[in-house]
Specification:
333 residues, alpha/beta, Rossmann fold, five-stranded mixed sheet, 36% helix, flat, binds iron/sulfur cluster
Length: 333
Amino acid sequence: MIQIDENSIFDIIRSKRPLSVALNGPEPLLPKIQKVSENIEREFNITSYIIGERSWGSCDLNTQAADLLGADILFNIGHTISLENFGEKVFMINAFDTICFDTIATKCASELKGRYKTISLVTDSQHLHQINVVKRIFEENGYKVELGKGRGQLNDAQVFGCEFHPVHKIKDNIEAFIFLGQSRFHSIGIALSTEKPTFMLDPYFEEFTQINEEAEVIKKRAILAIYKALDARTIGIIIGLKEGQFAKIKALEFKKELNKLGMNIQLLALSEISNEKLENFRGIDAFVQVACPRLGTDNFFSKPVLSVPQAIALIKLLKKEPVEEFFKIQHWL
Ligand code: SF4
Protein backbone atom coordinates (compact mmCIF):
# COMPACT_ATOMS: atom_id res chain seq x y z
CA MET A 1 0.00 0.00 0.00
CA ILE A 2 1.31 3.45 -0.91
CA GLN A 3 1.48 5.95 1.95
CA ILE A 4 1.77 9.64 1.12
CA ASP A 5 3.75 11.67 3.63
CA GLU A 6 0.82 13.94 4.52
CA ASN A 7 2.58 15.15 7.70
CA SER A 8 5.28 16.88 5.62
CA ILE A 9 2.61 18.57 3.50
CA PHE A 10 0.85 19.82 6.63
CA ASP A 11 4.15 21.06 8.16
CA ILE A 12 5.01 23.00 5.00
CA ILE A 13 1.53 24.58 4.86
CA ARG A 14 1.79 25.58 8.54
CA SER A 15 5.17 27.19 7.96
CA LYS A 16 4.52 28.87 4.55
CA ARG A 17 0.82 29.78 5.08
CA PRO A 18 -0.25 29.61 1.39
CA LEU A 19 -3.72 30.71 0.31
CA SER A 20 -3.89 27.94 -2.25
CA VAL A 21 -1.89 24.82 -3.12
CA ALA A 22 -1.73 22.42 -6.05
CA LEU A 23 -1.06 18.68 -5.87
CA ASN A 24 0.35 16.51 -8.64
CA GLY A 25 1.79 13.01 -8.92
CA PRO A 26 1.78 9.81 -10.99
CA GLU A 27 -1.65 8.76 -12.32
CA PRO A 28 -2.02 5.65 -10.08
CA LEU A 29 -1.68 7.92 -7.03
CA LEU A 30 -4.48 10.31 -8.03
CA PRO A 31 -7.19 8.68 -5.84
CA LYS A 32 -4.92 9.03 -2.79
CA ILE A 33 -4.00 12.57 -3.81
CA GLN A 34 -7.74 13.40 -3.90
CA LYS A 35 -7.99 12.28 -0.27
CA VAL A 36 -4.96 14.40 0.72
CA SER A 37 -6.55 17.38 -1.03
CA GLU A 38 -9.77 16.95 0.98
CA ASN A 39 -7.74 16.71 4.18
CA ILE A 40 -5.84 19.92 3.34
CA GLU A 41 -9.05 21.88 2.72
CA ARG A 42 -10.62 20.55 5.92
CA GLU A 43 -7.57 21.21 8.09
CA PHE A 44 -6.51 24.62 6.75
CA ASN A 45 -9.58 26.05 4.98
CA ILE A 46 -7.49 26.94 1.90
CA THR A 47 -8.01 26.10 -1.77
CA SER A 48 -6.42 22.89 -2.99
CA TYR A 49 -6.20 22.00 -6.71
CA ILE A 50 -5.41 18.53 -8.02
CA ILE A 51 -3.48 18.67 -11.30
CA GLY A 52 -4.63 15.60 -13.24
CA GLU A 53 -1.89 15.83 -15.87
CA ARG A 54 0.67 13.02 -15.83
CA SER A 55 3.82 13.54 -13.82
CA TRP A 56 6.47 11.03 -14.87
CA GLY A 57 9.19 12.19 -12.52
CA SER A 58 11.05 15.17 -11.17
CA CYS A 59 11.59 15.98 -14.87
CA ASP A 60 7.85 16.56 -15.26
CA LEU A 61 6.56 18.80 -12.49
CA ASN A 62 3.70 20.68 -14.21
CA THR A 63 4.69 23.98 -12.63
CA GLN A 64 3.10 25.88 -15.53
CA ALA A 65 -0.27 24.40 -14.53
CA ALA A 66 0.29 25.44 -10.92
CA ASP A 67 1.22 28.97 -12.08
CA LEU A 68 -1.91 29.21 -14.25
CA LEU A 69 -4.02 28.14 -11.29
CA GLY A 70 -2.29 30.77 -9.16
CA ALA A 71 -1.32 28.18 -6.54
CA ASP A 72 1.23 29.44 -4.01
CA ILE A 73 2.76 25.99 -3.50
CA LEU A 74 2.98 22.92 -5.72
CA PHE A 75 3.38 19.57 -3.98
CA ASN A 76 4.79 16.91 -6.31
CA ILE A 77 3.99 13.57 -4.70
CA GLY A 78 5.68 10.21 -5.19
CA HIS A 79 9.00 11.12 -6.78
CA THR A 80 11.48 11.07 -3.93
CA ILE A 81 14.79 12.63 -4.92
CA SER A 82 17.78 13.95 -3.00
CA LEU A 83 16.28 17.48 -3.02
CA GLU A 84 13.28 18.41 -0.87
CA ASN A 85 12.25 21.41 -2.90
CA PHE A 86 12.86 23.47 -6.03
CA GLY A 87 12.92 27.08 -4.87
CA GLU A 88 10.17 28.43 -2.64
CA LYS A 89 7.26 26.98 -4.58
CA VAL A 90 7.76 23.31 -5.49
CA PHE A 91 8.04 20.70 -2.73
CA MET A 92 8.77 17.02 -3.35
CA ILE A 93 6.67 14.76 -1.12
CA ASN A 94 7.51 11.11 -0.44
CA ALA A 95 5.04 8.32 -1.14
CA PHE A 96 6.45 5.03 0.11
CA ASP A 97 5.14 1.55 -0.55
CA THR A 98 4.60 -0.34 2.72
CA ILE A 99 4.94 -3.78 1.08
CA CYS A 100 7.50 -5.98 2.82
CA PHE A 101 10.39 -7.66 0.92
CA ASP A 102 11.37 -10.18 3.64
CA THR A 103 9.93 -13.30 1.95
CA ILE A 104 11.09 -12.60 -1.60
CA ALA A 105 14.52 -11.32 -0.50
CA THR A 106 15.11 -14.46 1.59
CA LYS A 107 13.99 -16.67 -1.33
CA CYS A 108 16.22 -14.81 -3.82
CA ALA A 109 19.24 -14.83 -1.47
CA SER A 110 18.86 -18.56 -0.97
CA GLU A 111 18.36 -19.44 -4.66
CA LEU A 112 21.21 -17.27 -5.99
CA LYS A 113 23.66 -18.57 -3.39
CA GLY A 114 26.70 -20.04 -5.11
CA ARG A 115 26.11 -18.03 -8.33
CA TYR A 116 27.08 -14.62 -6.95
CA LYS A 117 29.06 -13.50 -3.92
CA THR A 118 29.07 -9.72 -4.37
CA ILE A 119 25.84 -7.94 -5.29
CA SER A 120 24.36 -4.48 -5.25
CA LEU A 121 20.82 -3.45 -4.35
CA VAL A 122 19.06 -0.68 -6.20
CA THR A 123 15.52 0.66 -6.39
CA ASP A 124 13.16 3.49 -7.30
CA SER A 125 11.68 6.11 -5.01
CA GLN A 126 8.82 3.99 -3.59
CA HIS A 127 11.04 1.33 -2.00
CA LEU A 128 14.13 3.30 -0.95
CA HIS A 129 13.24 2.90 2.73
CA GLN A 130 13.53 -0.92 2.32
CA ILE A 131 17.11 -0.99 1.03
CA ASN A 132 18.83 -1.50 4.38
CA VAL A 133 16.34 -4.15 5.50
CA VAL A 134 16.96 -6.18 2.33
CA LYS A 135 20.72 -5.53 2.55
CA ARG A 136 20.73 -7.19 5.97
CA ILE A 137 18.88 -10.24 4.62
CA PHE A 138 21.45 -10.75 1.84
CA GLU A 139 24.35 -10.19 4.23
CA GLU A 140 22.92 -12.74 6.67
CA ASN A 141 22.95 -15.16 3.73
CA GLY A 142 26.68 -14.61 3.16
CA TYR A 143 26.67 -12.02 0.36
CA LYS A 144 28.86 -8.94 0.22
CA VAL A 145 26.44 -6.11 -0.57
CA GLU A 146 27.60 -2.77 -1.96
CA LEU A 147 25.28 0.23 -2.40
CA GLY A 148 26.06 2.79 -5.10
CA LYS A 149 26.44 6.43 -4.09
CA GLY A 150 23.86 8.94 -5.27
CA ARG A 151 24.63 11.94 -7.44
CA GLY A 152 22.62 14.96 -8.58
CA GLN A 153 18.96 14.25 -7.78
CA LEU A 154 19.58 10.55 -7.15
CA ASN A 155 19.86 9.19 -3.60
CA ASP A 156 22.21 6.31 -2.77
CA ALA A 157 21.01 3.08 -4.44
CA GLN A 158 18.37 4.93 -6.50
CA VAL A 159 17.97 5.08 -10.29
CA PHE A 160 15.68 6.89 -12.70
CA GLY A 161 14.63 5.37 -16.01
CA CYS A 162 17.37 7.33 -17.81
CA GLU A 163 19.92 8.05 -15.08
CA PHE A 164 22.08 5.36 -13.49
CA HIS A 165 24.99 6.99 -11.60
CA PRO A 166 24.84 4.79 -8.43
CA VAL A 167 25.01 1.53 -10.41
CA HIS A 168 27.70 2.77 -12.78
CA LYS A 169 30.12 3.73 -10.08
CA ILE A 170 30.24 0.20 -8.70
CA LYS A 171 29.44 -2.03 -11.66
CA ASP A 172 33.02 -3.32 -11.93
CA ASN A 173 33.12 -4.35 -8.24
CA ILE A 174 29.96 -6.44 -8.19
CA GLU A 175 28.60 -9.52 -9.97
CA ALA A 176 24.88 -8.78 -10.13
CA PHE A 177 22.30 -6.08 -9.45
CA ILE A 178 19.09 -6.78 -7.54
CA PHE A 179 16.30 -4.26 -8.14
CA LEU A 180 13.68 -3.93 -5.39
CA GLY A 181 10.19 -3.53 -6.82
CA GLN A 182 7.89 -4.43 -9.68
CA SER A 183 9.41 -2.04 -12.22
CA ARG A 184 10.61 -3.77 -15.39
CA PHE A 185 11.17 -0.22 -16.70
CA HIS A 186 13.90 0.54 -14.13
CA SER A 187 15.34 -3.00 -14.08
CA ILE A 188 15.74 -3.02 -17.86
CA GLY A 189 17.45 0.38 -17.70
CA ILE A 190 19.98 -0.98 -15.18
CA ALA A 191 20.62 -4.08 -17.31
CA LEU A 192 21.16 -1.98 -20.46
CA SER A 193 23.30 0.61 -18.76
CA THR A 194 25.58 -1.86 -16.93
CA GLU A 195 25.28 -5.09 -18.95
CA LYS A 196 25.48 -6.98 -15.65
CA PRO A 197 23.09 -9.76 -14.56
CA THR A 198 20.08 -7.85 -13.21
CA PHE A 199 17.23 -9.34 -11.18
CA MET A 200 13.88 -7.78 -10.30
CA LEU A 201 12.44 -8.66 -6.86
CA ASP A 202 8.66 -8.53 -7.01
CA PRO A 203 7.28 -8.42 -3.45
CA TYR A 204 3.65 -8.68 -4.59
CA PHE A 205 3.96 -11.96 -6.51
CA GLU A 206 6.90 -13.04 -4.32
CA GLU A 207 9.03 -13.95 -7.32
CA PHE A 208 12.31 -12.74 -8.77
CA THR A 209 13.13 -12.52 -12.48
CA GLN A 210 16.34 -12.04 -14.39
CA ILE A 211 15.65 -9.21 -16.79
CA ASN A 212 18.65 -9.27 -19.17
CA GLU A 213 16.91 -11.14 -22.01
CA GLU A 214 14.09 -8.58 -22.11
CA ALA A 215 16.68 -5.81 -22.06
CA GLU A 216 18.46 -7.44 -25.01
CA VAL A 217 15.21 -7.38 -27.04
CA ILE A 218 14.84 -3.65 -26.37
CA LYS A 219 18.46 -3.05 -27.32
CA LYS A 220 18.03 -4.95 -30.61
CA ARG A 221 14.91 -2.88 -31.42
CA ALA A 222 16.86 0.29 -30.64
CA ILE A 223 19.70 -0.77 -32.97
CA LEU A 224 17.20 -1.61 -35.73
CA ALA A 225 15.63 1.85 -35.39
CA ILE A 226 19.07 3.47 -35.84
CA TYR A 227 19.75 1.46 -39.00
CA LYS A 228 16.30 2.30 -40.40
CA ALA A 229 16.97 6.00 -39.70
CA LEU A 230 20.19 5.75 -41.77
CA ASP A 231 18.00 5.67 -44.90
CA ALA A 232 15.98 8.74 -43.88
CA ARG A 233 16.11 11.87 -46.02
CA THR A 234 14.04 14.05 -43.68
CA ILE A 235 14.26 13.78 -39.92
CA GLY A 236 11.95 15.49 -37.44
CA ILE A 237 13.81 16.57 -34.31
CA ILE A 238 11.35 16.77 -31.44
CA ILE A 239 11.87 19.18 -28.56
CA GLY A 240 9.87 18.04 -25.51
CA LEU A 241 7.85 20.82 -23.91
CA LYS A 242 7.91 19.34 -20.41
CA GLU A 243 10.05 21.72 -18.38
CA GLY A 244 12.54 19.17 -16.99
CA GLN A 245 12.89 17.51 -20.39
CA PHE A 246 13.32 20.71 -22.41
CA ALA A 247 16.56 20.45 -24.42
CA LYS A 248 16.37 23.00 -27.23
CA ILE A 249 20.15 23.45 -27.39
CA LYS A 250 20.70 19.71 -27.85
CA ALA A 251 18.05 19.69 -30.61
CA LEU A 252 19.78 22.57 -32.41
CA GLU A 253 23.16 20.80 -32.11
CA PHE A 254 21.69 17.66 -33.69
CA LYS A 255 20.09 19.77 -36.43
CA LYS A 256 23.46 21.32 -37.30
CA GLU A 257 25.26 17.96 -37.32
CA LEU A 258 22.61 16.17 -39.37
CA ASN A 259 22.29 19.06 -41.84
CA LYS A 260 26.05 18.83 -42.41
CA LEU A 261 25.59 15.13 -43.14
CA GLY A 262 23.01 15.90 -45.82
CA MET A 263 19.74 15.32 -43.92
CA ASN A 264 16.72 17.62 -44.16
CA ILE A 265 15.59 18.57 -40.67
CA GLN A 266 12.29 19.85 -39.33
CA LEU A 267 12.16 21.05 -35.73
CA LEU A 268 9.02 19.99 -33.90
CA ALA A 269 7.83 20.77 -30.37
CA LEU A 270 5.44 18.57 -28.40
CA SER A 271 4.55 18.02 -24.76
CA GLU A 272 3.16 14.48 -25.24
CA ILE A 273 5.07 12.39 -27.81
CA SER A 274 3.00 9.46 -29.10
CA ASN A 275 2.67 7.53 -32.36
CA GLU A 276 -0.75 9.13 -32.89
CA LYS A 277 0.72 12.64 -32.62
CA LEU A 278 3.68 11.85 -34.87
CA GLU A 279 1.39 10.43 -37.56
CA ASN A 280 0.05 13.99 -38.07
CA PHE A 281 3.36 14.96 -39.69
CA ARG A 282 3.92 14.21 -43.37
CA GLY A 283 7.17 13.72 -45.31
CA ILE A 284 9.24 12.77 -42.28
CA ASP A 285 11.10 9.44 -42.46
CA ALA A 286 12.41 9.23 -38.89
CA PHE A 287 12.41 11.22 -35.67
CA VAL A 288 15.00 12.15 -33.06
CA GLN A 289 13.53 13.19 -29.74
CA VAL A 290 15.54 14.96 -27.06
CA ALA A 291 12.89 14.68 -24.31
CA CYS A 292 12.54 11.44 -22.31
CA PRO A 293 15.06 8.83 -23.57
CA ARG A 294 12.66 5.97 -22.76
CA LEU A 295 9.90 7.13 -25.14
CA GLY A 296 11.29 5.43 -28.21
CA THR A 297 12.60 2.33 -26.44
CA ASP A 298 9.49 1.49 -24.42
CA ASN A 299 6.62 2.51 -26.73
CA PHE A 300 5.37 1.56 -30.17
CA PHE A 301 6.08 3.97 -33.04
CA SER A 302 5.49 3.20 -36.71
CA LYS A 303 8.64 5.14 -37.71
CA PRO A 304 12.05 5.16 -36.01
CA VAL A 305 12.07 7.48 -32.98
CA LEU A 306 15.62 7.82 -31.68
CA SER A 307 16.62 9.01 -28.24
CA VAL A 308 19.81 11.01 -27.62
CA PRO A 309 22.21 8.00 -27.33
CA GLN A 310 20.69 6.49 -30.49
CA ALA A 311 20.97 9.80 -32.35
CA ILE A 312 24.65 10.01 -31.40
CA ALA A 313 25.11 6.46 -32.74
CA LEU A 314 23.31 7.45 -35.97
CA ILE A 315 25.64 10.41 -36.47
CA LYS A 316 28.67 8.20 -35.91
CA LEU A 317 27.39 5.68 -38.47
CA LEU A 318 26.77 8.45 -40.99
CA LYS A 319 30.35 9.62 -40.42
CA LYS A 320 31.56 6.02 -40.80
CA GLU A 321 32.93 6.05 -37.24
CA PRO A 322 32.77 3.04 -34.89
CA VAL A 323 29.69 2.89 -32.64
CA GLU A 324 30.28 1.76 -29.08
CA GLU A 325 27.68 0.42 -26.64
CA PHE A 326 25.42 3.48 -26.79
CA PHE A 327 23.22 2.57 -23.79
CA LYS A 328 26.17 1.61 -21.57
CA ILE A 329 26.45 5.08 -20.09
CA GLN A 330 25.41 6.77 -16.83
CA HIS A 331 22.86 9.20 -18.20
CA TRP A 332 20.96 8.79 -21.45
CA LEU A 333 20.61 12.52 -22.10
S1 SF4 B 1 13.22 8.23 -17.91
FE1 SF4 B 1 12.00 9.89 -18.75
S2 SF4 B 1 10.40 10.23 -17.20
FE2 SF4 B 1 12.06 9.04 -16.21
S3 SF4 B 1 13.40 10.60 -15.29
FE3 SF4 B 1 14.20 10.14 -17.33
S4 SF4 B 1 13.29 11.74 -18.64
FE4 SF4 B 1 12.09 11.66 -16.77
